[in-house]
Amino acid sequence: MTARPVGASDEGTGISRRAVLLGGLAGLGAMALSACGGESDSAGSSDAAESAGTVTTGADGVQEVTLLVRDDYIFLPDAFEVGTGRVRLTLTSEAESLTHNIRFTPGAGPATIEEEIPILGPGGSETIEFAVDQPGDYQYECSFHVALGQIGTMTVRES
Ligand SMILES: [Cu+2]
Hints:
Residues 73-156 form the Blue (type 1) copper domain. One of its GO terms (molecular function) is electron transfer activity. Keywords: Copper, Metal-binding. This protein is an alpha+beta fold. 31% of the residues lie in helices and 35% in strands. It is built from one helix and ten strands. The chain has one helix at 3-51, and strands at residues 56-57, 63-69, 75-76, 79-83, 85-93, 100-104, 117-120, 125-132, 136-141, 151-157. The strands form two sheets. Strands 1, 2, 3, 5 and 8 form a five-stranded mixed sheet that branches. A five-stranded mixed sheet has the order 4-10-9-6-7, with no helix packed on it. A hairpin with a 5-residue loop joins β2 (63-69) and β3 (75-76). The longest helix has 49 residues, at 3-51. The protein is globular, with a radius of gyration of 26 Å. The relative contact order is 0.14. The model is unreliable at 1-44 (pLDDT under 50). The structure holds copper (II) ion (CU). Copper (II) ion binds at residues 73, 100, 142, 144-145, 150.
């Protein structure tokens, strides 16, 4: 009667050591899993930030680039480069409160680009597509916050 509780408590110790060991291994496994999950989860925001401004080519051959806006007055990035041809530009908002937009500043580039995203609320994402044939620097801006310096430059090179 007394031996049993003692034995149980000894076993309990053994079990709890094993449990600690197993827990440790499970913990490692969980860490490995969460590291993987974490990467693909944070891929949303950190990859978005990392790949912002990176020009890739879509399956249809159109150049693609994504710019980010947040709760401040900058475009991420504020400069990128494309070749002449078609461009598909996505503006993604990671803002929680600010509303932005994007347009190519009228009269500021070698040619007019009329496509624009007139308004993009917090968390939104919109895409425009346009063609650029004239190399040079095209300024883009958020017309709401241009006075606060929310501008950028798309450089078009001959391709
Ligand atoms: Cu803005």
